[in-house]
Amino acid sequence: MRYIILLLLTISLNLNAQTTLSGRISICDSLPLLKPTGFSNSDFMYSKKDSTTWIWRLKWIQAPIRLNAKDGKDGQQGVQGIQGVQGVAGVCPSCPPSSGGMMKGYVSTWTEFVAAYNDKSIRSITLMANITQTSKLYLDKNYSEIYEINGNGYTWTTSIDTAIVRRYASLTEANQGIDMQLRMTNISFKGNNNMLLYLEANYGAKFEGCRFYNFGTALGLFWAMGTEINECYFWENNIGIELDYARFVGGSNSASQSNHCIITNCKFRNSAGDFANIKATAVSGLQILHNIFEGTQAGGDYDIFFDDNNSNVVKEVLIYGNHVEHQPRIASTYIKLKEGIAKVGGVYSQYDCTLIKFESSAYAKMIVENIPFLTPLTKFENVRAEGRWQFINLPSSFTPSSTDRWIGTMPINSRFDLWDSNGQQPYIQLGNRKL
Predict the structure, then answer these.
(1) How far apart are alpha carbons 223 and 407 in whole angstroms?
(2) What is the mean pLDDT of residues 308-326?
(3) Residue 267's pLDDT is what?
(4) Apex CA 200: angle with CA 199 and CA 205, to 5°?
(5) Neighbour-count burial for 118-130, b at 16+ CB within 10 Å, e otherwise
(6) Rounded to an integer, what distance in angstroms lies between the CA atom of residue 418 and that of residue 405?
(7) Are strands 137-138 and 106-107 parallel, antiparallel or unpaired?
(8) Region 330-342 average pLDDT
(9) Which residue of 25, 177, 206, 393 has the smallest Cβ count within 10 Å?
């Protein structure tokens, strides 16, 4: 009887020769709790209970195909065999074809990843196992569609210097690919003091739910406008996120900036010797909201380092709702802004440190607002006399005119909107007033 069933299965495969399946198909009444003995990465499990198909990647993951098994009558796709075996299944015509035992775009090795990326019919790659990068990945210059890489929580390990690259020679050339929207989600990147991503010319890139460990620079974004970085972890990187302008021909700190980016709900950790969790150069409209900065005491130089680079179009930056849960070596937030308005508010700092260091050469305003708590030795630093400060709604115990609160010289012509000693009535303390 066994040989007859094998013969019929062979006939069924020949009848369905238009469908190529490299893996085996097992059929069960309901999905088992654990992987069956001998079940490989290229095998499929079909559940008769709910007509679903599954693959095993450390756990059961539903496969994006439907296996059309039929009752085993002669001449149809399958043959009813021992224990109700329904025969070899065919892949539905609307489902993506399989390749090498894997669905297109579903990869378990770096070789499979490269093959999937080079297949221009694929716009989404999904990791099905931990992978180790063995060659540099060049993102297409003229690609102007959405491209996503989903990690499923798996690890991407790389020690390649500048592991992922998109670089242009000129602003004209870069305009051909600016509408690419690179989306990376749920990947745990592990480096070796190298640079993970150097990305030029991207509008609407998104990094969500990812982790970045031990990079010199994790994300390097140059003329990457409208980028969103959300719910990511940055662990012991010299620079976690670098936002900068692209320095190709025709680019400048006014013409090729990474404008209108938002960094929110992320967690950063650094140690002594690291430069900054976030480094922004000539970025207009940047928002840094509701993040956590932690690490060793006297750890990285800065949590946030913002430099307008004397750009004529950079006029504002908004930093709000962040927690400083360590002691930066120089300052938690450094802002250099020639003119315009910088706002820092809602910050919670656990340790004595220089909370804000501000530098302006053309009377820019630093507005500090809605800070509910300051440690006794929290300090501020005004680098140049041109910088103007305004404090709004700070603790009644805070006296901004006290020299104990300042590194160096206090700012002049600044405004302090505070509360009286019992916290009931607001009052205004001014510098020089024009009558």
Answers:
(1) 35
(2) 96
(3) 98
(4) 65
(5) eeeebeebbbbeb
(6) 15
(7) unpaired
(8) 97
(9) 393
